[in-house]
Amino acid sequence: MFDLNAVQAAIREAGFDGWLLYDFRGLNILAQRVVGLAGKKSLLSRRWFYYVPATGEPKKLVHAIEPASLDHLPGTQKVTYRRWQELEAGVGSLVSGAKKVAMEYSPRNANPYIGRVDAGTIELVKSFGCDVVASGDLIQQFEAVWDADQEKSHFEAAKHCREAYNVAFAFIAAEIKAHGKVMETAIQARILKHFADNGMTTYSPPIVGVGPHSGDPHFDTSPATDMPVEKGSFVLIDLWAKMDRPRAVYADYTRTAFIGDVVPEKYAKVFTVVAAARDAAIKCVKDAFAAKRPLRGWEVDNATRAVIEAAGYGENYPHRTGHNIGQEVHGNGGHIDGFETRDDRQIIPRTCFSIEPGIYLPEFGVRSEVDVYIDATGNVHVTGGDLQTEIHKIIV
């Protein structure tokens, strides 16, 4: 439900004159969710605008063939357009008198998760004397912040995801004992069965990568590249899923295992560095919230990356440290990123993000991924069960 008082308070706190929410045929899922149009109502065929000033009554601009599309929202001032000239004049009337207007815009497209409004629409709004600014921190408060049901769904999903590793490792052991090997795709299928058995869904199957496949950060486990897992294999499993119900949010984890009773030093050495980097990120977050100090995603990424670079593996860590988690596994809140982008959105309570440093070599790769949730009181929770402190040994 759209909370006008909360939205206007956030606009004032940010120092903006207003927030102009806009969508055309579902291109701006962020605006849809903020105003409650996500789902069937997102199939509107014409452009709509909803302007929320820092104070005063919101204003609406809708097409004549969809005049009631924003009637569920606060505000009695509604302009209905037919011609393009009427649309442009209508946008001007919405932002009249405003100097700093937030939109789903990212300067230089530095953050494509926020940059949902096309350049032409930004040009149109600017033509009326407005400075268009990024709505990233506003979006966090009304899109990335979880309610109580979503928080519950994450911890439920986290439990089942953690159990998925026990299921997968037991399956690997049983299959190798019985047949001498098990294929990556068979392990993937067993994990998906576990998800289905526990009422979960996922947008794509988990990654199961053995040997060199684990060295590909976004390896696509498939029949075309299938490799066997057998005695002496090193395997990485990255899985993500959420409960199969409306507005549920994801859990997302990565663990590694070795098939044998003694993990070779080459694997253990790299894992130790990755785990130390992961732990540095967690400490950075906990220290900031304990001190009640504002924290930005890039700061956490820097703390993580410093550990890997000091160990001499900087060139082997080609991605950001983590991403926001929400109704999509890669959510729309602040990311843990000072590398691919410089994410300067503040990490705020009731949001969740992954911490997943990795080192990728031609022969193998190691990633250790956990989720971090900041509750309403600022307490930091590392979800998904116990931290992996060493490579798991699968004894066969």
Which properties best describe this structure?
396 residues; alpha+beta; 2 domains; 5-stranded mixed sheet; 33% helix; elongated
Short description:
This protein has 396 residues and is α+β, with helices and mostly antiparallel strands. Helices cover 33% and strands 21% of the residues.
* Radius of gyration from the alpha-carbon trace, in angstroms: 24 Å
Average of the residue pLDDT scores: 96
Distance, first to last CA? 54 Å
What is the CATH top level name of the largest domain? Answer: Alpha Beta
For the sheet with most strands, the description reads: 6 strands, mixed
CATH architecture of the largest domain: Alpha-Beta Complex
> Poorly predicted ranges (pLDDT <50, ≥5 residues)?
none
Account of the 3D structure:
Strands 4-3-2-1-5-6 form a 6-stranded mixed β-sheet, with helices on both faces. Strands 8, 9, 11, 12 and 19 form a 5-stranded mixed β-sheet that branches. It is 33% helix and 21% strand. Strand 17 (370-374) and strand 18 (380-383) form a beta hairpin. The chain has helices at 4-14, 29-35, 84-94, 119-126, 136-144, 148-179, 184-197, 265-290, 297-310, and strands at 18-23, 48-53, 59-63, 77-81, 100-103, 131-134, 182-183, 200-201, 207-210, 228-229, 234-243, 251-259, 324-325, 351-355, 358-360, 365-367, 370-374, 380-383, 392-394. It has 2 domains: 4-144, 3-Layer(aba) Sandwich (Creatine Amidinohydrolase, Chain A, domain 1), CATH 3.40.350; 148-394, Creatinase/methionine aminopeptidase superfamily (Creatine Amidinohydrolase, Alpha-Beta Complex), CATH 3.90.230.10. The model has no long low-confidence stretch (mean pLDDT 96).
